[in-house]
Fold this sequence. Notes:
The complex is a heterodimer of chains A (309) and B (442). Chain A has 309 residues and is of the alpha/beta class. Chain A has 3 domains: 2-89, Elongation Factor Tu (Ef-tu), domain 3 (Beta Barrel); 104-212, Rossmann fold (3-Layer(aba) Sandwich); 224-307, Ubiquitin-like (UB roll) (Roll), CATH 3.10.20.30. Chain A contains 8 helices and 18 strands. Chain A has helices spanning 73-80, 114-126, 146-149, 163-166, 171-175, 190-199, 243-249, 284-289; strands at residues 2-9, 14-21, 35-39, 45-49, 60-65, 86-89, 104-110, 130-137, 156-162, 182-188, 208-212, 224-228, 233-237, 267-272, 275-276, 292-294, 299-300, 304-307. In chain A, strands 4-3-6-1-2-5 form a 6-stranded antiparallel β-sheet, with helices on one face. A 5-stranded parallel β-sheet of chain A has the order 9-8-7-10-11, sandwiched between helices. In chain A, strands 13-12-18-14-16 form a 5-stranded mixed β-sheet. In chain A, helix 6 links the parallel strand 10 and strand 11. Chain A is globular and about 55 Å long. With 442 residues, chain B is an alpha+beta fold. Chain B folds into 2 domains: 27-133, Rieske Iron-sulfur Protein, CATH 2.102.10; 146-422, Naphthalene 1,2-dioxygenase Alpha Subunit, Chain A, domain 1 (Alpha-Beta Complex), CATH 3.90.380. Chain B is 19% helix and 24% strand. Chain A binds chain B through residues 255, 257-258, 260, 262-265, 280-281, 283, 285, and chain B through 1-3, 209, 211-213, 347-351, 353-354, 357-358, 360-361.
Amino acid sequence: MVTVGSVKRETDTVNSYELRPIDDELLPAFTPGAHIDLHLDNGLTRSYSLMNCSWERDRYHLAVDRAARSRGGSRWVHENLRVGSRLLISPPRNHFPLEVSASHSVLIAGGIGITPLLAMARFLERHQRSWELHYCAREPARAAFLSEISRPYERGKVTMHFSDREGLPNYDAMVCGKCLDTHFYCCGPAGMLDAFLRATATHARQFIHIECFTGSAGTVDGEFDLILAESHRTLRVRKGETILDRLLEEGIHVPSSCREGVCGSCEVRLLAGRADHRDMILTEAEKAANETIFVCCSGSLDPSLTLKL
Amino acid sequence: MLTAEQARLLTDVSPGSALNSYWKEHWIPALRSAALESDGAPLRVEILCEHYVAFRTTDGSVGFLNEACPHRGISLALGRNERNTLTCIFHGWQMNADGNCIHMPTEKTDAQCARVPRIGYATREAGGIIWVYLGKGTPPQFNDFAFTHLPSRHVRARASYNYSNWLQNVETLLDSSHIALLHHDTVYDKDTRKEGMMQLSANNDVPRYSFEPKAYGFRSFAERAQPGGNTYLRVTEYVAPGMAYIGTTSAEAAFVIMVVPVNNTKTLGWFVFWDERGDINERLPAFLMIGTDEDDDDFVASRAGKLVGSQDREAMRRGESWTGVTGVILEDYIVAESIPIPDRTREFLGSGDLAIVRLRRELLRRIEAHREGKPLPENAGNIDYRSLRSLAEVVPAGTDIRAFADTKEEERRRSFGGEATARKPGASGVDPVRDVVETAAE
């Protein structure tokens, strides 16, 4: 349980919120790239990345973009969260961790996707690591935290890209010519993530990290594409349904039993994409290898998954 | 729940099957050393659906041969065992302990003997057990288990046969969930000495499982919160394909269970007990002896195949027994024998079965790797089998259980530091178990 310490209007559509602990307790620690879930009074749960310096234990700082087509989450936050409001949150989780040993980090942010990358930039700067940030927005008025980001850094370099002026960003230019041990991070709208993945298609997968902000981070239930490599079909997994649901609806038979990720019956080979593994079977290494997925319970961290079906 | 294909891969040991071939890549514990005496009657041994004879020659070597005489296929179990040879009674063909034919009285000369295919297999005696290698080519390095070094007084190897497929026998070794249920009588019995702290499984049928992959198989953790805030931690070590360390925690004394497929509906189950500190027979865990016969070559001989139908229903009704069967071994065997090969394509597994899901995946992976011609990770020469033990301990809640298990293993490893000197047999003249009697392969 936390209380809202401050609300700041950052742009026409983006507010930032500072959450503070109710007592003098310390908030659980987090690592750059982490997010928390807010349990809203209207019954919805929404995830937001933490932007502040990850060593701060007295506050969580997040930003909410009131989406034009909000399904109720961001609109509720904008209309209801005020200073002094109390809120139930989950402890931080990190599906978008920073590889701190990298020689160089390239951070590419689109719109409100700046939030987790800001936490990363702050961490990298503090720990004297080499980094660069590309912040893409339509125009300066829509780039939240622009003034903070534009200040000079010792180890990092920030480049702004305003598409209303310059056209679409050139992702190839952002990712080429880096040293071998560079890690690349991208967070932004689906179109940007697709372009980023195309630009980094020849990079080894362990250096490429993306976080997708479609509704909730780690879309377990819905809102991603399912490419069936052997049947040559693409299905859209809708909000509120599992991959298994969608497949069975299409008449594609996959064995299943427990429907909770313990029995292993529904295992399918994964050919591309990163799953949001919610089973209890795979080890961490197996999850990271992303060679297999249990479709009754797991979702996607990427805009699409390719299955061997 | 498995597909039919997966279920077959894991259960079918018929000759030619992937599982049969995979099993043959390992040293297999076949029978007890004490079962054979020099110049004694050959014994018939069935392993992996194939039939062999075992005999001990005059000078003490072990021969493990195909049962069928290479001449016309009748049983060498009828053979005369004398003068370091096994002589078929049919035509007098003689085989040495390596399984080479050395004399054919029915031919003018022995010139053809060298052409007769060798029918013997590499053997090794250690820990009171005769181990055999039935695979192709050079045998893998013999795994250096803790009990393979000890003098015979310190090791007791007991064998048993039950009439069920091997897989459910291995699954039982990893299935922590059944302890307080199937073995209710032992866990809740106030009079039973606290062996392996099984009693701490009481009232706690839903352990939290986690696993750590290992070259030899995997390490399985089961945590049970205890009243008062501690955690009862059981760590089971699974060594592929059929071995587990369960339930004890001491470095000096332990037991291991090994499961060997005899055929698709019969299994050889080994219980090997050891204690480095003294005579093992004074320290056998009673709960594992209850219900068994005296005979170490088959300690359920009087019951096997007859367990189903033998439950004491009156005792169950009176509340004296949960299963109607006496002792944990017979309880495990009665459920195994009740359906010799359960239908694993129709199961409903839950979170309590995670260890079994893990086991099956691990085995499938290894069998597949073997089919692709890859070396078996469990046979890699650099695994420290000697330091392997299970754990059963109460630890403070929040303990890092992986680090805890690693620390314990490291402590055991360091205690073996002076191993060449620390393991001398006692001065009382006990002879060490015959340790390096390995008949040559090719």
